[in-house]
Amino acid sequence: MPPLTTNQPLTSKTLTKKITAILLAAVTFLAAAPSAPPTDEKRISVYSPVAFYALPVLERGGREYVGLLELLEPLGRVSSQSDSRRWRLRYNSIDGEFLAGNTRIRIHGRDFDLVAPFLLENSRGLVPLSSLSTLLPRFLGAPVNFRESARRLFVGDVGTQISFQLDAGNPPRLMLNFSAAVNPTISTEPGRLRMVFKRDPVLSPGSQSISFDNKIITQANYSENNGDAELDVAASQPLMASFSSNRRTIIVAAVPQAVAANAPVATPGAAPQNPAPAAPSPSTATIAPNNNSNNNSNNVHRILAVVDPAHGGDERGAALTDKLAEKDVTLGFARLLRHELEIRGFAVTLLRDADTSSTFDQRAASANVARAEIYISLHAASQGAGARVYTALLPVEGTNNGAFHAWNAVQAPALPISRIVSAAIVAELQKKEFPAAESSASLRPLNNVFMPAVAVELAPGSNGVADLTSANYQQRAASAIADALVSIRDRLGAQP
Amino acid sequence: MIPRHLLISVAALLLVVVSMGVYLRHMRLQAGELESAEAIALPVAPPPSGPTETVTLYVADDAVGRLTARSAQIPLPEGRQQRAEELLRALLRIYQQPGAAHPMAPAADIRSIYLVAPGAAVIDLNAAFADQHRSGILSEQLTVDSLVETMAANVPGILRVNILVEGKMRDTLAGHADLSESFDVPTVEQAGSQ
Asked: Average pLDDT over chain B, rounded to whole?
């Protein structure tokens, strides 16, 4: 009877086979192993009068820890020294002394105990989260409010209060009034509008759940988790959100069913408002369909469009090929767009109709002096595909200081309508099966013009860079832009 | 008959010519060695030392026109400013690899980063970064967003970022992205999340 196992000599052939199998298994394992997205990491949010920031939280021995140096760095002058197991930290003029693996620490000459041992990893001092409430006031000399379960740390007198006010009109509107400007990420799903406050020190409204005596907007729920605060508004109809009062008020309203096809984004009656930028762009869905693209009627106000072929003269723009400069493509494209707009009843001014150059300020001044109702800057690039439509990248808190506006933020009041224009152009381009996307860019002179303003960057299609000089390709894009402006003609005329 | 002193002079001159030739050849060889030594890209500064840490890099992709958050393990020095510089250099190395989704010139570099209180950072790029950057709104804006979001994600407390080139203000990165103003971190983050 043969033995059950045999120790055969390992030939080079079997060795190669085994190594190959092991390598294949390793590659398969690595490919299959899910890479944890950074957003799933535990973190602590810190809100103080000088800075808002978030730090990663580490788990050690079943407890949560955070780097003390990183925690204090944004708040003042910090330095550290490590010597074997001993770690010394100086914050402004206060010294702390820590011993790795020990709970006893000394701050400013006085001893006290952490709830778990201090850890030293690669000269980095880690303290347990549970001790922050007692540890930090000794360094900072200011009270701290640490919500440990939500990992939100408030240093000193910071905190944004919320109050609710329901207007039971038709459609009903819920006003969320904040004691300071806020900048939440807003998303919608059927029957729910969700606002996540990652950078705002929003405080609990008192009750975690507030019910409203309304059939459409029924409830608001507040929660905190992993450094963020979250506010959910429940409703029986789709909701949309808009900002007002310099982002101190968020107005949540049901999308009017009857006017959903052509309703403006902003809610009537409350001015001035900005559509929530983080929300799935409602304007894309609410733009009126273009049913009068060839309407050349003279009984409507002729809207003045300023079309700006970017670059020119010595300023060639991007080198699209060895011989093709961006300035030449933008000029040809601008002339086509002028034609498309004029046959749809627009008055059009080209900022250059030859190979001439102007500064950004001169271009903005020309558009502003003309008191145009829409400004379109045209660009071309060899990267990307289709077209990309940009609006100005301006600070979210706005820079509205009454009647005066900084030159670099003149666009701010018109930005909500600019975004509607951008969404309309993207929708029309996509309708014509032209790849298109919208975005924001720090691109002059978009932020220096006071009327709605967009920039369109034409990129190659399926034929590569040759498309950029193709009359047919440019014609399709120009026609889509013109149709989009027709579809929102009323909004352009109604601008402030 | 040729005089003896003339023969000696000619022989001496020949010796000088041959010696000069040998010396010239020696000098040329030395110069060649120096050139080849320069051609080898030896580091002029020590590599960053410090424990390896996990950071989040916001990496641009021209094809999709977006940034993607990517975790990376890199050695980071202790100082906050030096950490920020190494962080952005790690980002640049991704863009300088062959076939990168958002290619950048091999000579592009971060000269320095200044963290000025409270919440403001200044990124000083070298001339090659801007001069050899591809021109276009999408490409330039992705670069700016990538630098700003990577800084904000890994250096706590940064709210505004200014970008200089060779220590000086510059109107645009490569003809499009405006560098004359500060970049507001929440605005850039919100634009990126759209």
From this structure: 88
Q: What is the CATH number of the domain that holds A192?
A: 2.60.40.3470
User: Would you give the DSSP letter of residue B168?
Assistant: B
Residues of A in contact with B175 (CB under 8 A): 311, 315, 317-318
Spatial CA neighbour of A351 closest among A305, A303, A314, A308? A308
Nearest CA in chain B to A396: B187
Of A440, A137, A398, which is closest to residue A273 (Cα–Cα)?
A398
Which domain range does residue B87 map to?
A: 52-193
User: Touching check for A164 and chain B: CB below 8 Å?
Assistant: no
Query: The domain spanning residue A112 has which CATH number?
Result: 3.30.457.10
Helix (H), strand (E) counts: chain B: 5, 6
Sequence-distant (6+) residues with CB within 8 A of A473 are: A461, A463, A467
The percent of residues in chain B predicted with pLDDT above 90, rounded, is 60
Mean pLDDT per 10-residue segment, chain A (496 residues): 42 57 54 45 87 87 90 86 88 90 90 90 89 89 87 88 84 87 79 86 83 86 90 86 80 63 33 35 29 41 89 90 90 92 90 88 89 94 90 70 75 90 93 89 92 94 86 90 91 61
pLDDT for position A262 = 36
A91 inside domain: yes
Same domain, yes or no, for A138 and A167? no
Shared domain for A409 and A350, answered yes or no, is: yes
The answer to whether the Cβ–Cβ distance between A383 and B177 falls below 8 Å is no
Same domain (yes/no): A238, A374: no
Give the domain extent around A199.
162-255
- Give the total number of structural domains in chain A: 3
Helix axis angle, B137-154 relative to B80-95, nearest 10°?
140
Edge-to-edge strand list for the sheet holding A304-309: A347-350, A304-309, A374-380, A453-458, A387-392, A436-441
What is each CA distance from A314 to A460, B108, B111, in whole angstroms? 24, 25, 29
Contact A442 B141 (CB under 8 A): yes
CA-CA distances (angstroms) from residue A196 to A233, A434, B163? 12, 34, 30
A449 and A318 belong to one structural domain: yes
A167, amino acid identity: D
Cis peptide before A272 (omega within 30 of 0): yes
Of all helices (H) and strands (E), which one includes residue B130?
helix B127-131
With beta carbons under 8 A apart, name residues in chain A contacting B172. Answer: 444
Q: Are strands A387-392 and A304-309 parallel, antiparallel or unpaired?
A: unpaired
Closest Cα in chain A, distance from residue B50 (Å): 8
Q: For chain B, what is the domain count?
A: 1
Contact indicator for A307, A348 with CB cutoff of 8 Å: yes
Strand partners, A111: A106
* C-alpha dist (Å) from residue A480 to A380, A390, A472: 16, 16, 12
Residue A403 is predicted with a pLDDT of: 64
Helices A415-431 and A471-487 sit at what angle, rounded to 10 degrees?
Answer: 130
